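Morning run. Coffee first, then this:
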Amino acid sequence: MSESVVKITLIASIILMGYNISEFATSFKTVSEKISEFLSLAKENAASDKDLRLTNIVSSCLLSIGYVTLVYFSDIVIWIVALVVLKLFFTLLLSDKLLIQVLREGTLSKKSYLVSKFDALFNAVMGFAFAVILVL
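And here it is:
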């Protein structure tokens, strides 16, 4: 089982890295446009702030739990798994905080944008590091 889990974890790590590199490379203008589209879709569908936050938290938690489970069963030392849990928990909190800001203010501040950039960079580095660890 371990070899197949390692291969799946390698693929998940590469996807994590690629997604976060694309998030890191996204300009402030593009993010602002996506926020406008998101808010208009939310309004169009009459989604409440609570529903949007719940959806964000549940989907982020499921993806994070899935990734952590893969890392755990890839025979990685437990303290590294704990670091991954902490990093993904921080990302979840940041994501919720940014969503709250967007829902209340209708926009994302430059400071929050930069914080999300650094979070995406760290997640990309984490995905790359696990891909390298798994290959070696």
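The helical segments are 2-25, 28-44, 49-72, 78-105, 110-135. Good start to the day.
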